[in-house]
């Protein structure tokens, strides 16, 4: 199944390119997806000698907990070291998605080092997952639920370009950026914030969940791919309790972590001509910042312009989060 997935499951049609171009008009000069080009393998290790600056929000959260990044890193590393069942689950899921398990460990450890602290036991995540089944909430903003919102005419084009849930929700996210974010539409003002934060985090903006610290919008994007590769039920935005349970339950969410990482690897190979599968710091960076296809398009455009000037291409670089993953790679490789 993994081999078929690698060849076909993430192949995107030209319609999604058109949707992306509608938001990022400047990308129209980039090379076409169909053009053949050599793929450059990104070597292991960090491109930056020193760790890039950690955002202030991460520092504030860490201070509020009276802890340090190093203490949080050691805590989540111990969870991995002491829980063979977690390592076994990651090995199994990684194989399904044709990933080195270090990519999954890096993404998870980075999240718990710079965002939330890890629970000491995997069992705690299962308990939390069940609690969301009896909690009443919906994906909505200002009384407008997500189904009604994406039913607006502005989103009609997404219905024709979407080949799967990734294309559909990525298109809707781009329409949000282009038409609604920070704007008044039909006498309603929409916040100048990310689509995922406004509609998909009903408890507070910026909230992510589970051992993979996934955003519900990311889970919805990956739903079809996870259904295809792992056989899990498809997610529906009209059932937010099921979405939250999925991203809290380690038996379910690890497939979504793997799918997110694989999507980034395939996007950079297919769109920008870079094989990042040997650099867990780069994949962890993309797991942290999101929007891998848009970032791959931007990098491809920049490198086309650099080539026209006779300059060497710019390689993908790690951020502060990915830098830690590469810096501690020996710890992570020892887990598997």
Task: Characterise the protein shown here.
With 336 residues, this protein is mainly alpha-helical. The chain has one domain (2-29, 36-133, 211-334). The chain is 59% helix and 4% strand. It contains 18 helices and 6 strands. The strands form 3 sheets. The chain has a two-stranded parallel sheet. A two-stranded antiparallel sheet has the order 2-3. Helix 14 (250-272) crosses helix 15 (280-289). The longest helix is centred in the last third of the chain and has 23 residues, at 250-272. It is globular.
Counted by DSSP, the helix tally is: 18
Percent of residues in beta strands: under 5%
Low-confidence region ranges:
1-36
Which structural class best describes the helix and strand composition? Answer: mainly alpha
Distance between the termini: 22 Å
Strands, total number: 6
Give the tally of structural domains. Answer: 1
* Mean pLDDT value: 84
Please provide the ordered H/E string of secondary-structure elements: HHEHHHHHEEHHHEEHHHHEHHHH
Strand line-up across the major sheet: 1-6
Structural shape: globular
> How would you sum up the major sheet?
2 strands, parallel
If you compute it from the alpha carbons, what radius of gyration comes out, rounded to the nearest whole angstrom? 20 Å
Q: Which bin fits the share of residues in helices?
A: 55-70%
């Amino acid at each position: 199944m993994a081999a078929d997935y690698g060849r076909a499951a993430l192949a995107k049609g030209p319609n999604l390119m058109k949707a992306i171009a509608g938001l990022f008009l400047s990308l129209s000069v980039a090379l076409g997806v169909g053009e053949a080009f050599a793929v450059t393998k990104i070597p292991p290790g960090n491109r930056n000698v020193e760790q890039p600056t950690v955002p202030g929000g991460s520092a504030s959260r860490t201070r509020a907990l009276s802890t340090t990044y190093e203490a949080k890193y050691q805590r989540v590393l111990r969870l991995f070291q002491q829980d063979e069942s977690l390592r076994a689950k990651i090995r199994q899921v990684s194989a399904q998605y044709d990933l080195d398990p270090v990519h999954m460990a890096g993404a998870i450890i980075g999240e718990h080092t710079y965002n939330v602290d890890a629970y000491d036991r995997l069992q705690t995540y299962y308990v939390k997952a069940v609690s969301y089944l009896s909690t009443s909430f919906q994906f909505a903003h200002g009384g407008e639920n997500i189904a009604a919102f994406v039913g607006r005419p502005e989103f009609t084009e997404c219905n024709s370009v979407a080949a799967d849930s990734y294309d559909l929700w990525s298109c809707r996210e781009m329409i949000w950026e282009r038409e609604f974010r920070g704007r008044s539409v039909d006498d309603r003002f929409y916040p100048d914030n990310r689509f995922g934060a406004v509609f998909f985090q009903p408890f507070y903006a910026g909230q992510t969940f589970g051992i993979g610290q996934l955003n519900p919008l990311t889970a919805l994007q990956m739903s079809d791919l996870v259904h295809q590769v792992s056989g899990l039920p498809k997610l529906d935005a009209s059932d937010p309790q099921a979405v939250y349970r999925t991203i809290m339950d380690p038996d379910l969410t690890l497939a979504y972590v793997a799918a997110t990482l694989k999507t980034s690897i395939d996007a950079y190979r297919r769109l920008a001509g870079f094989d990042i599968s040997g650099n867990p710091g780069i994949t962890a960076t993309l797991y942290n910042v999101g929007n891998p296809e848009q970032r791959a398009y931007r990098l491809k455009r920049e490198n086309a312009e650099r080539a026209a000037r006779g300059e060497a291409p710019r390689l993908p670089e790690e951020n502060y989060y990915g830098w830690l993953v590469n810096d501690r790679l020996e710890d992570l490789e020892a887990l598997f």
